[in-house]
Amino acid sequence: MTTFPRRLLLTGGLGLLGAGAVTACAGAEPSAGSGSGPDPQGAESSANTDALGHVHGIVRDPSDGVVLLATHYGLFRIADHVLSPVGPTIDLMGFTLAPEGRYLASGHPGAGVDLPEPVGLIESTDQGESWTVVSRGGESDFHALTADAERVLGFDGELRMSTDAQNWETLAIPAPPAALAMAPGTGRIAAATEAGLLLSADGSSWETLPTPQLVSRVAWADDSTLLGSGIDGRLLTSRDSGQTWAASEEPVGEVVALGAGLTGDGSVEALLVVGTTVLRATEGGNTVEQLV
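Structure tokens predicted for Exo-alpha-sialidase:
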């Protein structure tokens, strides 16, 4: 395991939404040696990160423990610090895991991929090897997407919710969300916006949580543990559903994707993407290791 001080990961230009958060992901083809992630070891960036482009989402698949990256160039799995592409090339602007092993996503098809533009809500039941359109093909590009056993929630310029992934209701929200996260059991929804971190039970009424600073990304580790990436680069952790917060001692950097969960011993795990560097953090962001 490689660990290093958080101060070496700090990058400049911290902003709430980040590049490409609410606009389509512009894409140049990846080229060798073009990795842009911070390099705490002082070596050249690993060539396999060049294939990522922008990273839009990160999550650990509970079925096999593999970390997944949703990127401009499709889905990637991380095993033994090596990236492996999975399935077709789709600009996965939104990505989330639903119960029963379902992957849900949105975005834009790559060259030669037989999906509409934009893809709408798409689903994979074979861990990303293939995708089918569920609804809103040619209509929606959900830049933020989250789901539980009962609902799918996405933002494509409007906040939309569906209980069957087919029929959608438009909801009101005080500000456009850069990220959405649904608590796994209670279904409470957290939304990172420029108006603050918002919380809702049903997606129609919202309260603003008392965060110590604006939050750019948000994820639930369990029904009461909420993680956020502060705009100063620190990782924020709340164990009481966002009422009180603790910040990491040092910044980790400008987080472009955030995932969270619990380890086997009940510790809180954060999965972070800073540039194209993929990190795993524990102890509230005070212990960090590089995954790729």
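The first strand starts at residue 55 and ends at 60.
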